[in-house]
Amino acid sequence: MEHLINDLHLTGKLVTLPQVGHEAFGEVFYYLTLGVPRLSGAEDLLPVTISERLLEGMDLAIGNVLSIDGQVRSYNKVIDGVGRLLITAFAQRLNEVDPYRNPNLLQLTGTLCKPPAYRTTPFGREIADLMVAVNRAYGKSDYIPCITWGRSARFSSRLHIGDRISLNGRLQSRAYQKQLPDGTCVEKVAYEVSVSQIELVAGSHLEPESYAPAAPAEPSQEVE
């Protein structure tokens, strides 16, 4: 049986109060935004989906600290006639807040489902964007955008569609400017995994000695 890994831990402050999002199998799910701190002092504003069961009896206010364990999930939604891939942190458990624990931890094992997009910035930094399919129960899959840096980006550029990879990192939000057909620009926010460590799972096309080294994450400061 395939060993599935999609483990996410987040601790942060409540930026928006829970609002009713959708209902599935008679269970109501709420949407909220969590502000999760980075070591740099910046903050990732991350969308969270959470069941009414976990919120029962809670009197939440803006600024409250929440600690959740769960998974990164994706779903498709048609916006302005165009299908969009939306990313959310899906809460499965609420925890006691541990001030000594990293507030943003993610482990994924999945399959590369698009060719890596490798590039260098004007400052010479190497980046590779990956799309990783992660299976979950009932035959469903989540499609998670990931970004790698430096040596990890060079390694990622050699991957092929169908390669099984395991990675550690954090879920991040990234603001960028998108130019519209009329020449104006609007600010958008992307959600992706900033990868700190990546390696191949046995069975890849690469030789074993080419498995990725544990490369430290480089700070994600580039915008599109």
Notes on the protein architecture:
The protein has 224 residues and is mainly beta. It folds into 2 domains: 5-103, Beta Barrel (OB fold (Dihydrolipoamide Acetyltransferase, E2P)); 107-210, Beta Barrel (OB fold (Dihydrolipoamide Acetyltransferase, E2P)). Helix content is 5%, strand content 60%. It contains 2 helices and 11 strands. It has helices spanning 52-55, 150-156; strands at 5-24, 27-37, 43-51, 65-79, 82-94, 104-112, 117-120, 126-136, 140-149, 164-179, 185-200. Strands 1, 2, 3, 4, 5, 6, 7, 8, 9, 10 and 11 form an 11-stranded mixed sheet that branches. Strand 7 (117-120) and strand 8 (126-136) form a beta hairpin.
Structure in a nutshell:
The chain has 224 residues and is mostly beta strands.
Structural class by secondary-structure content: mainly beta
Mean pLDDT: 88
Number of helices: 2
Taking all Cα atoms into account, the compactness measure Rg is 18 Å
Q: Can you tell me the CATH architecture of the largest domain?
A: Beta Barrel
CATH class of the largest domain: Mainly Beta
CATH superfamily of the largest domain: Nucleic acid-binding proteins
Portion of residues in beta strands equals over 45%
CATH topology grouping of the largest domain: OB fold (Dihydrolipoamide Acetyltransferase, E2P)
Secondary-structure element order, N to C: EEEHEEEEEEHEE
Q: How many structural domains?
A: 2
Low-confidence stretches: 208-224
* Gross geometry: globular
